[in-house]
Structures are given as C-alpha cells and as structure tokens.
Fold this protein.
Amino acid sequence: MESAPPEPAGIFFDYSQKLDRPHVEFLDEINDREKCEFPSGAAALLFPIDWPEPFGLVMIEAMACGTPVTAFRGGSVAEVIEDGLNGFIVESIEEAVEAVERIPSIDRRPCRAIFEKRFSARRMCNDYLRVYERVIEESEQISGPELDQAAVA
C-alpha cells in the first residue's frame, strides 16, 4: 500500500529543520500590506525552483518592488528574468552562490521598470484587449458581423 504524499506543512517543517541556521529566518504567511514591504526590503529573491514553473508570479511580485531575482533556469524563468538586468538565471548551486555575490551590480530601478513595461495591470489588460479584438475580427471575417443571438439574450 502506497503512503500518501506529505502534507505541505510537513514538507515545510522538514525543510525548516534542515535549514535551521542563524542567518535563515522562517516566516509564517504574510498579509497583503507585508507582501509589499517584505520583498522591497530584500537584497534579492532567491527562486531555487526545480520544476518547470509555468508563470512565476512570485518573481513578478519581487520585480514590482524593484527586487532582483536569482532563479534556476526552467519553466517561465527565462521569460521573466532578463539575465543581468533584473536578476540572474543560473544552472547550479555554485552559479547561484556566484549570482548572490553579484546582486549589488543590479540596479533596482530597471527591475521595477521591466515590471512596469511587461507585467503591470495596465500592460496586461491592454494585451488582453488586443487579443479579444483580434478574435472578434477573425470571427467576423469567417461569419460576418452579425451578433450571436444567444450572446445578447
């Protein structure tokens, strides 16, 4: 009989015990106000994920605060991080250690500017509007400009 996977709290406890060091502080869940303050006070966000993260919201949240990100390559990391501008993309623990030492070379203003350019609510809404407009145009080319009666009922 297979055993059930460990509960997330159990996983956290396991890692917290392994990383119990004087320079590591484990925090409980933080509220919305703290979510803005916490990453903005950090030198960097370390994102040592080892699976193909499909979006990486936590990286974008850090960039919104001007906080550079050091992340392992995989998933969306290369789409979010501009290596050397808003963080570093690494392939190994040794490269991550080197990247942490290079964090002071990252200017926090471009981190925030890259967020504004690529991930702000305004930018993302405008991108969605362009997609919707393209879908409407393509559907009108196929079926004409008539309204779908079910849509207006």
